[in-house]
Amino acid sequence: MTEDDVEAAHKLSLAARWPHRLDDWKFIQRLGAGYVALFQDMLIGTALCWGHGTEFASIGMVIVSPDFQGQGVGRQLMAMVMTELGRRNLTLSATTAGINLYRQLGFEEIGKIHQHQGTVFTTKLMGLQPGERIRPMGASDVAKLTTLGARATGMPRGTVLAALREVAEGVVIDRYDEVIGCALLRRFGHGYAIGPVIAPDIERAKALISHWTGTYAGAFLRIDVTDSSGLSDWLTEIGLVQVDSVTSMVRGQAPLADKALRQYAIINQALG
Asked: Residue span of the signal peptide, if any (predicted)?
């Protein structure tokens, strides 16, 4: 896949009712590698992958045109990206349509990701602990963000998070000059996406999310949270209803995160 394929890939995803903008495609394509399937010069399938250090990688944006499904196109694309990634441990988010193929390729289910979206008009500010405050993310926080990302996911995230900072706004929870949590927001799809959200506990995660729902009150927001986050009921209550779920899968060993920190909301379903 090259930059010249991105516009056709975007059209393919729109036909599949995926909300990605052309700029969303450009962002993820620049970060990794990918392959396309063609039929008479028409793009009919895509698969992308992103390495996270030497041990881990993620696969996403696996799309096959409805007219060509069931003909082995997706399997061929997956074989190519898996070859590209070598011996790394692999993660992906599987739709219902793709889960059987991924099982056949050796992926195992490890959880769910719940997609919430909607518009929040009023936000109740969540309290923090004494000495803590939410403040804008600054240039001096980049290294701290990289550390938080690695601890919360169990794999290097420096490259992805540095690229995300170029297109996103960010805030952190500062506790006596120590950064203990963060949340980013960027343009995505029909509005804005919140993620990642990294915090030591659910109450601080809610505080970070509430910052963005208050700042962007009345805007269309999306957030993808893990099933273990415990956030789904609360998100629905504030106006971000659950509209879909995908299955988190791994081939090899799952990343081992720091138990004192959690990624409550992912960047997106492709990158994790």
From this structure: none
